[in-house]
Amino acid sequence: MKDPNIELGDIHWLMDILQNIDVGLVVLDRDYRIQLWNGFMESHSGVSPQHAKEQIIFDLFDEIPRDWFMQKAEPVFQLKTRTFTIWEQRPYLFKFKNYRPITGRAATMYQNTSMIPLESINRAVDHICLIIYDVTDIAINRADAISANQSLRELHQYDHLTELFNRPHWEPKFAEEHQRSERTGQAASLVLIDVDNFRHINTEYGHQAGDEVLRTLAAALRQTLRQTDSACRFTGESFAVMLIGTDEQQAVHFAERIRKDIEHMIITVPGHEISVTVSIGIAASQPAFESAAAWQQAALRALNHAKDAGRNRTTLFQHQE
Ligand SMILES: Nc1nc2c(ncn2[C@@H]2O[C@H](COP(=O)(O)OP(=O)(O)OP(=O)(O)O)[C@@H](O)[C@H]2O)c(=O)[nH]1
């Protein structure tokens, strides 16, 4: 039916717009043969409208999964409904190269795709129109925001000097472990490792050397840990390690190994070679610890015993102490 508002000259304009618009337009017939292919599609695919015309879309673009596409398109033909696919569901329909200078990091253009029914004069839907939007900028910005958030989160979790978890991040994990071991009765041990006479290291070699000692010890500790263990910088010169599924004897074995490793370590700082020792206090989980704080207190008492007994040793918290 002729639309009285559209003059012949207008159609010429409309064709110009359709060819030059920065959006992909494709018309498909009932057999999925291409009937219209605009300038956007030509310039991104390298396929001319003459070549595209009458070709089945899946034959020309094998990256389009036929079953998935038909599942989307059939309701558009039959129910005259629109469908919309966003890049989060499927990054692209047509595998076009991304050419944008700012988001050049993406190899492929991200696309949102609409499918709309096109009614003929008898109101049957014999054709559908695909509208392809280039959303690469949005997708890349979103990916950047996610990774920036991730870095920020990680920044808040770690102690910047030792790269171990910081205490505020570790404490809730420890409290959770306390509840879990209370509930399940599964063994877990808390190990506190404190550098001996660290004040002396700072005064003798300088604060920067002290920092280097802490960094080196933390790195050694990280190497000893299993995936499930979690360590933090507990105070300035002490570390806490939560050993999951580890009873007191196994924890002593772990602690003695790290203590002896540290004892034999030579830490090189400008102008000096430094040796340090550590004292270690261990408390294995037990029902008597009514709170995570009580468990920590027990490990601290054991650590103080190790210090009082002459340092460079491991002490296990005994409940009858
Ligand atoms: N270099 C450096 N020193 C720190 C840091 N945090 C805490 N310290 C120092 O660690 C020292 C801890 O001293 P003390 O608590 O007396 O313990 P200690 O000298 O190790 O003695 P014992 O634990 O009893 O063997 C203090 O001098 C703090 O200034 C840090 O991040 N870097």
Automatic annotation (TrEMBL):
InterPro entries named among the record's database cross-references: Diguanylate_Cyclase, GGDEF_dom, Nucleotide_cyclase, PAS, PAS-like_dom_sf, PAS_fold, Rev_trsase/Diguanyl_cyclase
EC class name: transferase
Pfam families in UniProt: GGDEF, PAS
Origin: domain of life: Bacteria
Cofactor or coenzyme needed: Mg(2+)
Stored CDD domains: GGDEF
GO biological process: cell adhesion involved in single-species biofilm formation; negative regulation of bacterial-type flagellum-dependent cell motility; regulation of DNA-templated transcription
GGDEF domain: residues covered: 186-319
GO cellular component, one term: plasma membrane
EC number: 2.7.7.65
Molecular function GO labels: diguanylate cyclase activity
Catalytically driven reaction(s): 2 GTP = 3',3'-c-di-GMP + 2 diphosphate
NCBIfam families in UniProt: GGDEF (TIGR00254)
Protein name: diguanylate cyclase
Organism, scientific name: Bacterioplanes sanyensis
